[in-house]
Amino acid sequence: METLVYRFEQGTRTVPATPQVVGVVGSGNLEVLIEPAALGGACQIQISTAARGFGATWEAVMRDFHARWQLADVNIAINDMGATPAVVSLRLDQAVESMLGSAP
Amino acid sequence: MSSFLEATARERLAQLFDAGSFSELLPPQARVISPHLGQLDAPVAFDDGVAVGSATLGGQHVLVAAQEGAFMGGAVGEVHGAKLVGLLRRAVGEKAKAVLLLLETGGVRLHEANAGLIAVSEVMRAVLDARAAGVAVISLVGGSNGCFGGMGIVARCTNAVIMSEEGRLAMSGPEVIETTSGVEEFDSRDRALVWRTTGGKHRYLMGDCQSIVPDEMGAFRAAAMAVLVGLDAGTTALTIESVEAEHQLLSQRLLRFGSATDPLDIWAALGMADPASIPMMEAAAFIDASVGHRAGDQ
């Protein structure tokens, strides 16, 4: 397993209080837990992944995600079992949409 | 119309029970995860593969659990099992009418070895304790991983089992039988054979499940509601009479069908017309055709 943490400062969009989880920890899939957290306007993402050595790819996917949503005071935790970047992006969008009920 | 088979555990909880009624205990954000998987450098899930809580079914308060088959095949680890046990004990404490278990599992999570085995045996004890305390326990089996191993035993310890044809229920799974007894004994890649042997229709004919339904969320919901209504008549506890009747049924099964090599032979012996056509029948037609031919009926 490999643990990765990313933090993006100065987001603009907050989320409601009720945490949401989307996806499941199955082969080629991941679960995303999203919840509000007092992070001084930042969005923090912790990833626990079964696929080692893909830090650069994760970082690119997370940067794109933050550029789409600009979340503030949000904590996201991911348990990954080898999902592809496209699946990760879709799950992250699904997680935010389940919180906000809308597309970016 | 939505499929029970294809839904995740959480989708089942959302769609089977009254809309918005599911209230989760130890939700994912509580992060009650397996203490063992991390030590093995294996991925964990925030709910350890099972969601437990309360819900209403047709307005009736019930406690519910749903296993996620996609996470480690729905296998029961220490935390996963403890969540099921805690739910069943809670049902006794709050004198709940029923606990509904949406089972999709390969049984014990082998990664957790003895802790997993103990967890499953504790679930069995908790099921029987709940029944003895007047709480009905109902199993719903319709996930793609079926319900196997120790959890297959748990399902049969409950008051009623509701299955779809696609659902499977057994002790040893197909691969286990093939590995231990050889491919000549059981070919686990022969999907038709696997479903004939462990699928809902065979279980219904053998009297191992009480209801068979099409693979639709609404059908599972209606069957669960019907079981709840039917519960008002009798006792929920396991009685010595029911155990003796079950033993009687099992010894007759061995006597009558012990030499059969395929469920088709058994279905023929039960008097089912055109056994070969059974796997293709819709649930309603199958139920009509099986009247008077189920093992318990005869």
How many helices of chain B does DSSP assign?
Answer: 11
Quantity of strands of chain B, as a count: 7
Q: Which two chains touch over the largest interface?
A: A-B, 18 and 19 residues
Order of helices and strands of chain A: EEEEHEH
- Discrete helix count of chain A: 2
The amount of beta strand of chain A, in percent, is 25-35%
Q: Structural class per helix/strand content of chain A? A: alpha+beta
Low-confidence stretches of chain B: none
Shape of chain A: globular
Radius of gyration of chain A, rounded? 12 Å
Principal-axis shape of chain B: globular
Which strand order do you get reading across the main beta sheet of chain A? 1-4-5-3-2
What would the average pLDDT of chain A be, to the nearest integer?
96
Low-confidence stretches of chain A: none
Percent of residues in β-strands of chain B: 5-15%
Mean pLDDT of chain B: 96
Give a verbal description of the structure:
The complex is a heterodimer of chains A (104) and B (298). With 104 residues, chain A is of the alpha+beta class. In chain A, 30% of the residues lie in helices and 30% in strands. Chain A is built from 2 helices and 5 strands, in the order ββββαβα. Chain A has a 5-stranded mixed β-sheet with strand order 1-4-5-3-2, covered by helices on one side. The longest helix of chain A is centred in the last third of the chain and has 16 residues, at 85-100. The radius of gyration of chain A is 12 Å and the shape is globular. The model of chain A has no long low-confidence stretch (mean pLDDT 96). Helices cover 41% and strands 13% of the residues of chain B. In chain B, helix 2 packs parallel to helix 3 (113-132), helix 3 (113-132) packs parallel to helix 4 (150-157) and helix 6 packs parallel to helix 7 (200-206). The interface between A and B is medium-sized, with 18 and 19 residues.
